User: Fold this.
Amino acid sequence: MKAIIYDGKLKYVKNYPAPLPGEGEALIRVLLAGICNTDLEIMKGYLGFQGVMGHEFVGVVENVNNRNRRLIGKRVVGEINCGCGVCGYCMKGLQKHCPDRKTIGILGKDGAFADYITLPADNLLEAPDNISDEEAVFAEPLAAAFEITEQLHIKPTDRILVLGDGKLGILASLALNLVQADVSLAGRHENKLQVAREQHVKTIKFSDLEMTKQYDFVIEATGSADGLEFALQLVKPRGTIVLKTTVAYGKEMNLASVVIDEIQVVGSRCGPFEPVLRAMTRKLINVKPLISAVYKPDRVSAAFKKAGSREALKVLLDFR
Assistant:
């Protein structure tokens, strides 16, 4: 099968072995896959991953090994973490924190930049008919945005600042805007801020930010190791910072202000797919304006170059 692999170098191959579904797994034919900042960080050494990259996808189930055969022929999206199924975390529904988990395209399991992928059938959700492939491929990153409201109690009176006008920052601002709080998105790029502004999110340039501690919640989605330090200058005492950035390399910083101002720092990763699919079905969030380009897999070098450029948002790979 066709696949995009990373083994120290980014490669497109035509004869990669197709995966075989294990017990309870589904074999999924990939339709579209999205390039994420995490994929770009993998190429810088993040988690030392090697293999087929990619974790954002929509596809069609072609076979299921002894489970949920009703999914065969269905168009699906999928939770990317595969837990062991028997540890305390998995028994509580926290497979994404299983110490022995595998994560497609990121940790220990081949990902979605290929003709086929395997995932536990229990990880899959059917994509409603009124959601296009181009929308459904956003289910995983939008779920990561929705995770913020799963973790925190946000009131309509709260002031929220999302730092970073990349893909995740924009999606976070759109998701948080649904709770009717006072949400602002801060970034550097007018074209990206415009995407959020057209969906009724207030925006502000980084250069125009008033650097005072005035926000109840600051969502750090800058994609930079400096993001937490920046967020600490903007969150109120006893406020909350939500960290969304994952980078290959960190930096030293003084955390005294976390103690002095009694700041809560919350790590936030993968999230729930069901509310995302409901929101997209009801057209509460429009993800299509985030699509900057679509490439066939044999143009992977151009696709990754585009994805890494400052002006780009989401770049898709088309395996259809």
Observations:
- The radius of gyration is 19 Å.
- DSSP finds ten helices and 19 strands in the chain.
- The CA atoms of residues 141 and 168 lie 7 Å apart.
